[in-house]
UniProtKB/TrEMBL annotation:
Keywords: Membrane, Transmembrane, Transmembrane helix
Source species: Kribbella orskensis
Protein name: ABC-2 type transport system permease protein
Cited Pfam families: ABC2_membrane_4
Transmembrane segments: 18-39, 51-72, 93-119, 139-161, 168-185, 228-249
The UniProt record lists the keyword Transmembrane: yes
């Protein structure tokens, strides 16, 4: 039995991944319904595909929690020791776990993205919801890429922290609070924010988008990189932290 198969069985043998996937999908699609369902008259005509993605970012937070729990739960119950005894190559084991979790996260991201667009199209039937620009195609399919990379980031944090509460706190507070508060630092705050990972992930998704009723175009354009380079930068963060986590896990006691 391959390590990929083993990690897939281990992941789906617990309830938390199922609940996290359901919550992420319901949260994303439900908020899309709220964002588009109450628009009427002239407002409905201004609804755009980007508006349907209003809740997909929050769904990403849930999937990051799922990714972290995939690692920290094993440390909590001590099953990681059994896994390391069965597979002495710790890097190979953790890398296969990361691949499984990231692939699942990417699939959930696509389901959340396209599900939200379908619901928004049905509720705002009078709006032009066609996906006909490169930025809109990048937004719709890019959710899968960002979800997958965010899951890699979360698994790496889980390996480093090894405690569920601490890992989840970091994964929620960092993108929602820390990166948002950086501009408050005098002189260098704005420059620091431009180089934070999740700000660049947002630039990849929302750069150049017509945000419709949100009243903003080219959301995320305050970063220093173009959308695709912003994705590469976010990927470098995720992979870099994963490499550090794998090296750390191979050298310390389980």
């Amino acid at each position: 039995m391959s390590l990929i198969t083993v990690e897939r069985i281990k992941l789906f043998s617990t309830r938390s991944p199922w609940w996290c996937m359901i919550v992420a999908a319901v949260l994303s699609i439900g908020l899309a319904a709220l964002a588009t369902g109450f628009a009427s008259g002239p407002d409905e005509l201004r609804v755009t595909p980007a508006m349907t993605q209003f809740g997909v970012g929050l769904g990403q937070m849930v999937i990051m929690v799922m990714a972290a729990l995939a690692v920290t739960t094993e440390y909590r119950f001590g099953t990681i020791r059994t896994s390391f005894q069965a597979v002495p190559q710790r890097v190979a084991l953790l890398l296969n776990k990361t691949i499984v979790v990231a692939t699942l996260a990417a699939v959930v991201g696509l389901v959340a993205s396209w599900g939200s667009w379908v619901v928004g199209s049905l509720l705002a039937s009078g709006a032009d919801m066609k996906i006909d620009t490169a930025a809109e195609w990048r937004l719709m399919f890019g959710q899968g890429l960002v979800y997958g990379l965010a899951a890699i980031f979360a698994v790496a944090v889980g390996i480093l922290i090894r405690q569920s509460a601490g890992a989840i706190a970091i994964l929620i507070l960092w993108p929602l609070l820390v990166e948002s508060l950086l501009p408050l630092i005098p002189k260098i705050g704005d420059d620091l924010q431009k180089w934070t990972p999740f700000t660049n992930a947002n630039q990849f998704l929302n750069g150049g988008q017509d945000m419709g009723l949100a009243g903003a175009d080219a959301a995320g354009a305050s970063t220093a990189l173009s959308p695709w380079w912003a994705l590469a930068y976010f990927a470098a963060w995720s992979i870099g932290i994963l490499v550090i986590a794998l090296i750390t896990a191979s050298k310390r006691d389980a």
